[in-house]
Design a protein that fits this description.
With 313 residues, the protein is an alpha/beta fold. Helices cover 28% and strands 27% of the residues.
Length: 313
């Protein structure tokens, strides 16, 4: 009951105080000044919350990471990073995007989130040679590559169903989605190349033709006898299909020797000179005489071991 009675008394006294203040010029001026001050404070508050605390976000897109951080710090902002992404045209660690966007409103000292480039999306072709096709396919698809199976082929080194080759080759850097051609082994070929080295070319040729293989012959100088097989490709024991090509290197025999002139030389000296050229010597008449004729004659090309007849008188 006491509090209820006191309230009307307080209100009455405040009313009297207001009338006394407003009754004087000074009082009225003070009230007006206070009202203006309150209005200015209110306007300043509205300006601060709507405009004053904001500024424009700096342009950080297309800058390298270090430069973007430096510019943001210089302008008083904190930098944060979102998930980076691949980009075909932007180098690694270049700024691809920012939030807030450049020139948009941002509170002074706020955080700008940057999205960095991982660079062009590239994947290194894994080495799947020697693996089964299923495992190779899984390994390739794991790095965003597309598997395309090429025609299988016979192979001496890898069993059936195992990868023998990939194109592009292992280690090559390619774009995501690149098609990788995988070649799988059909196992060892049904025919085995025989050992032909040391055989006469006619015998070797007949043997290969019997097996249904194609013969290619290449003749070259050799110390081996003429028409002897001195090399082959593929090597003996290699598995091949019927109709495959086998290359034979065939000896043309030792290079021919040019018979030197020995006429008018002492017979022992002539004999020594001819034997040094891998020629045989037959001396007629006087072994200690002077060479008066020779056969074959000088500058004649003959096979090594050819006999030269000397007439010594």
């Amino acid at each position: 009951g006491v509090q209820t009675c006191a309230l009307p008394i307080l209100l009455e006294r405040l009313s009297v105080l207001r009338d006394q203040v407003m009754a004087t010029q000074y009082g009225r001026t003070a009230v007006i000044a206070a009202m203006v001050a309150l209005g200015l404070v209110a306007m300043l508050g509205v300006w601060w919350f709507t405009m004053g605390r904001y500024t424009e976000a700096p342009q950080l897109v297309a800058l390298p990471k270090a430069e973007a951080e430096a510019r943001a710090k210089q302008a008083g902002f904190t930098v944060a990073y979102g998930d980076p992404r691949y980009d075909e045209n932007a180098a690694k660690d270049m700024v691809l995007a920012q939030d807030p966007a450049p020139a948009s409103k941002i509170v002074k000292g706020d955080t700008i989130t940057l999205i960095l480039s991982l660079g062009p999306e590239r994947y290194r072709v894994p080495d799947v040679v020697g693996k089964t096709f299923d495992i190779a396919q899984a390994d390739l698809e794991k790095v965003n590559l597309v598997v395309e199976q090429g025609p299988a082929r016979f192979d001496d080194n890898y069993p059936k169903g195992v990868v023998v080759e990939v194109k592009p080759a292992p280690g090559t850097e390619v774009k995501a989605g690149t098609r990788i051609t995988v070649t799988v082994s059909k196992g060892r070929a049904p025919l085995s190349v025989p050992n032909l080295i040391g055989m006469d070319v006619n015998q070797a040729r007949a043997q290969l033709q019997t097996l249904g293989l194609e013969v290619v012959e290449q003749y070259k100088d050799s110390s081996k006898p003429k028409d002897q097989v001195i090399g082959q490709s593929p090597a003996d024991g290699t598995g091949v299909e019927k109709g495959a090509q086998v290359k034979l290197e065939v000896s043309k025999g030792p290079p021919e020797v040019v018979v030197p002139r020995v006429i008018d030389l002492p017979c022992p000296q002539a004999q020594q000179l001819l034997e040094a050229q891998n020629l045989a010597v037959s001396v007629q008449f006087n072994p200690n005489g002077t060479v008066r004729f020779q056969n074959p004659g000088e500058n004649t090309s003959v096979p090594p071991g050819t006999q030269v007849v000397l007439g010594c008188l």
